Amino acid sequence: xxxxxxxxxxxxxxxxxxxxxxxxxxxxxxxxxxxxxxxxxxxxxxxxxxxxxxxxxxxxxxxxxxxxxxxxxxxxxxxxxxxxxxxxxxxxxxxxxxxxxxxxxxxxxxxxxxxxxxxxxxxxxxxxxxxxxxxxxxxxxxxxxxxxxxxxxxxxxxxxxxxxxxxxxxxxxxxxxxxxxxxxxxxxxxxxxxxxxxxxxxxxxxxxxxxxxxxxxxxxxxxxxxxxxxxxxxxxxxxxxxxxxxxxxxxxxxxxxxxxxxxxxxxxxxxxxxxxxxxxxxxxxxxxxxxxxxxxxxxxxxxxxxxxxxxxxxxxxxxxxxxxxxxxxxxxxxxxxxxxxxxxxxxxxxxxxxxxxxxxxxxxxxxxxxxxxxxxxxxxxxxxxxxxxxxxxxxxxxxxxxxxxxxxxxxxxxxxxxxxxxxxxxxxxxxxxxxxxxxxxxxxxxxxxxxxxxxxxxxxxxxxxxxxxxxx
Length: 472
Fold this sequence. Notes:
alpha+beta; 12 helices; 29% helix
């Protein structure tokens, strides 16, 4: 072979080798490179694909959903709850005439934490650490709950979680969580906060259970029962053996059941994001007209609302705490289930915080407080919408009136909430709320909320006898 022939041959060989290498690389791109982290694989997908996979995973792994009606619940087997000190569904509290614990609270308390599946460990969240608080926000916002079509999710802020989880006398060990050993990822959470409750005229120290959440990809690990057992153990260690909680599903056995009512404040936006529960009987133009409210402005210095019906209405300040305490003590004692707040708790739960809680009082001419009403703020994230990315909801928290018409006062709250750029106002049909719900054009939703007591037997009650709202 001559040098010239060799020179001509070499480029062809190099070209062939290059083509072969490219084919091999293309082929290898489809070859498994070993085990991959499923969390990382899912997170690398576009958000819309993630939602599709998560929705499919939810339907595939959870099987039949938990019952949402008492009729469905009576046909459901509750393997975990049958082992717990709660009223049985076949009897409930219908025939109960006295109040008291179901089991003796002085029994020996387990010292060791409950066992978790291999690869997971218990931890206690330090909510004073911004990084840890951010982890909790991420877990709840991505896994706590979502609308059925997976287009609207809660978007809890750090400030909201601090308010909800750190009232007076809170304990860090009651912020109970589960982490993955391999990467320290937060994948499960449950919390309790202390409270005094009045149950049929009997004052009882207990806890409110909040924010039970397990990562969507770990629902088959059956971590929920273990989280509940571990939190119960930690609460029992402090000498408390009762709890109050609320869920949208039916468990053994509801103390009372109520419904959410929704009042549009921004009808156009709610329609554009397909907000669930809107009336299907009217078009957008009519909905905007029907739900129109007076425009409200605020005086710049005092933030006192202008264009409201109730004379003497103004935002709560710190000097109002004692007056509100007297007002609520007299009002809430009328109900069969209600909170008993100290002065410190009233300051924590009701003193206004930007984008968390708004409270208004009505001051009489003699300086006495005659009425109080508050609502808390929950932000939502709107997914896959070209225009809207968020949706703000106001939830009625507490209301007590002695001197003013409750309809006028609540209409003022709607006006104020709209002025603060809320899109929808929600209220439960508890307490005396039915007096204004229909008259102010609230519409009943298909979402129920059921109240429960842990290790406490007492008669069931109608929703208008419930004076407790649990911000969750």
